[in-house]
Every structure is written in C-alpha cells, then in structure tokens.
Design a protein that fits this description.
By secondary structure, this protein is of the alpha/beta class. The chain is built from eleven helices and twelve strands. Bound molecules: 1,4-dihydronicotinamide adenine dinucleotide.
Length: 337
C-alpha cells in the first residue's frame, strides 16, 4: 500500500534538499504518493499569505509532511511560517535526536542524545507589545497542559527507545513561577515512569555540561526557546546543522524537517548537505511504520559519510548535493535487508 505525504519544498536551499530527500525515500522501496504544497515569503503575492490554507489542508489530509526550511524576515515582516504551521497543526513536540556519524571529525565520539523541545508556547507565543516607546514586553507562556504533554512525550519516547534517563532542563531559580510549574509537572510525570531515571538541570549549566561531557545526558526535555538553543548546541556536537534531523509531532499530524534554516548564503549553488533532511525523511518512514526502510536509509547515509569520498563542503568534501544523493541511493540499493 502506498503512503501519502505532503512535500513542502520551502525556500533557500529548501528545493535542493527536499528534492534529494524525496529521491532517497523513493529509492527506499517504500511507495509514497507525494503532494507538493507551497509555503514561504515568495508565495505571498499569489495567496496573500506565506502559509496558504491549502497547504495546511494538504498536511491534514495526508497526516504527514516532509518540509524544507522556510526563511523568516528578522525584526519586521510576516511571522514565522514554521511556528504558524506547528501551531495550526498542534505539533506540540519537537524531537531532535543527535547521534555521532562515523567519518565526521568532532570533539566527541559516540554522542547519542535526544532533545525534546516544547513546540507550542514559551516565548514563541508571539505575544509582544510596546508598553511605552523604548520599552517592549514579550510574554513567555508556560501552561500546565502543554508542560504535561511534552513531559509525557519525553518519558514515553525514553521508554519506547529503551533510554536510561530524562533530564528536565529549566531556569526555575529565576523563573520561579513558570519554570517552577514546569518542574512540578515534570516530577509528577517522572513518578509514572519508575524505570526511567529523572534529573533536573539549569539551562546555562546544561549548556556547559553538554560541551564538557555529552555522555552525562541522555534524553533532555525543555520549553521552546531553551530547546531551540540547546538543540543547535547538540547539532554542533555531532558536526553541524547539515546533519541534524527533527520531527514535529502532534496527536494527529507530524511534520518532518531539518534543524537548519534556509541557508541563504549557499542557496541555489547545489552544494547544501541534504543529510539532515534525508534523516528527517527516515524519521518520517519510522513514523509511518516503515522502520526497516528507515534503518536502511539511515545506514546508507552513514555509510557514504563514513567512507568520506563523496561528501559535501560542510564536511570537508567537494561533492554537490546531487552527487551525495546519488551516492546514498547507490548505497541504499546495494544494501537491502
Ligand atoms: P541556517 O541554518 O539557515 O544557516 C546557518 C549556517 O549553517 C549557514 O552558514 C549555512 O550555510 C549552514 N547550513 C545550514 N544548513 C546547511 C546544510 N544543509 N548544508 C550545509 N550548510 C548548511 O540559519 P540562519 O542563517 O540563522 O537562518 C536562515 C533562515 O532560515 C532565516 O530566515 C531563519 O528564520 C530560517 N530558519 C528556518 C527554519 C525552519 O524552516 N524550520 C529553522 C531555522 C532557521
């Protein structure tokens, strides 16, 4: 049976990396019927909005989407399409695994972390206003309901993947009420999972401890902005943004995208590393119940990178996006289970 999935190419390097990921998934042996949908600033003149309702409807119809990055103007202009899409589809959890890849020179080997970022509130509630000229207030919303579902998701993920520990990352020493609530919920949920160790770590100390010894952590769960920053740090630990996949998960829908943005500095040159989006595609296959194919895709990507002859510039090579993609497809085809 074929699966249906929405493909949102996005902008910047989006077209290049989504095309690569689509080709690899199509070569995985899983049949996917793709429905392409528009989103991003370049579509405003056509739809009057960077996130057309048709695109949201397409994800709702197919339930899953593979999405390229979409740029957001800084300081002014339209609100982030990425944030709006997560809100419209109630994609409350952002799952960002960071696992070392053989052949990528980094400070640490065997990094294996899962960052779980609350995706629906915190400082991304978009509630900002001018109190008086020269004074701006931004509201950081933390609710018991959203905290509970992200913490449950974190513990469930830990249990499903056989992980040993969940760390709740917070700033409750300063944000006593909001992060105090987050921790209170965390402790309550932790009691429901006696088989998983639970610890708490202040966000600034977490950043330092991750850099000194990533093996001190396993699954880390936190509110939106902390998750945004800490997951870029963990991406750095495994070799950079070009390698880090992610999944935005809700009760009904899921959108899979790289951690990186639209990389306007290298867009249109055919040199972007599609690894992060291909690995996001593998997460999508897993979500669709195609876990054997997901493993094959991940193994093929890892084999090509470990071999080192055909890798993109960010990894010290000279291969184009397309050459790397061809190499992954060749590895996939010679490696059926
Ligand atoms: P970025 O992730 O696009 O780029 C940061 C650096 O990493 C750049 O030097 C870029 O060339 C490099 N890089 C990123 N992805 C790469 C890849 N696949 N291969 C090789 N090198 C790669 O972050 P930046 O520059 O802060 O943001 C650019 C735009 O992307 C902004 O408009 C931002 O709002 C948007 N963005 C969108 C996201 C999404 O769609 N989910 C996530 C993050 C940012």
């Amino acid at each position: 049976m074929a699966h249906c999935a929405t493909l949102i190419p996005g902008d910047g390097i989006g077209q290049e990396v989504t095309r690569a990921a689509q080709r690899v998934l199509d070569a995985s042996g899983v049949r996917i019927e793709w429905e392409t949908a528009d989103a991003g600033g370049e579509h405003i003149s056509r739809y009057g909005t960077p996130l057309p309702q048709q695109t949201i409807d397409a994800v709702m119809r197919n339930r899953v989407a593979l999405k390229g990055p979409i740029g957001t103007p800084i300081g002014t202009g339209f609100r982030s399409v990425n944030v709006e899409l997560r809100k419209s589809l109630d994609l409350f959890a952002n799952y960002r695994p960071a696992r070392s890849l053989e052949g990528v020179p980094t400070r640490y080997e065997n990094v294996d972390l899962m960052v779980i970022r609350e995706n629906s509130e915190g400082l991304y509630s978009g509630l900002e206003h001018i109190v008086v000229p020269g004074v701006i207030e931004s509201q950081r919303i933390i609710t018991e309901k959203a905290s509970q579902r992200i913490l449950r998701y974190a513990f469930e993920t830990a249990r499903r993947h056989g992980r040993r520990k969940v760390t709740a990352v917070h700033k409750a020493n300063i944000l006593k009420l909001s992060d105090g609530l987050f921790l209170e919920v965390a402790r309550r949920v932790a009691r429901e999972y006696p088989g998983v160790e639970y610890e708490e770590s202040i966000v600034d100390a977490t950043a330092m401890r991750l850099v000194l010894d990533p093996s001190a952590f396993d699954v880390l769960v936190m509110e939106n902005l902390f998750g945004d920053i800490i997951s870029d740090l963990t991406s750095g630990l495994i070799g950079g943004l070009g390698l880090a996949p992610s999944a935005n998960i809700g009760d009904q829908y899921a959108v899979f995208e790289a951690v990186h943005g639209s990389a306007p500095d290298i867009a249109g040159r055919g040199i972007a590393n599609p690894t992060a989006l291909i690995l996001s595609g593998a997460l999508m296959l897993d979500h669709l119940g195609e876990s054997a194919a997901a493993r094959r895709v991940e193994r093929a990507v890892r084999a090509v990178i470990a071999q080192g002859a055909i890798v993109t510039r960010d990894l010290g090579g000279s291969a184009s996006t397309e050459e790397f993609t061809e190499a992954v497809i060749a590895a996939l085809e010679s490696n059926h289970e």
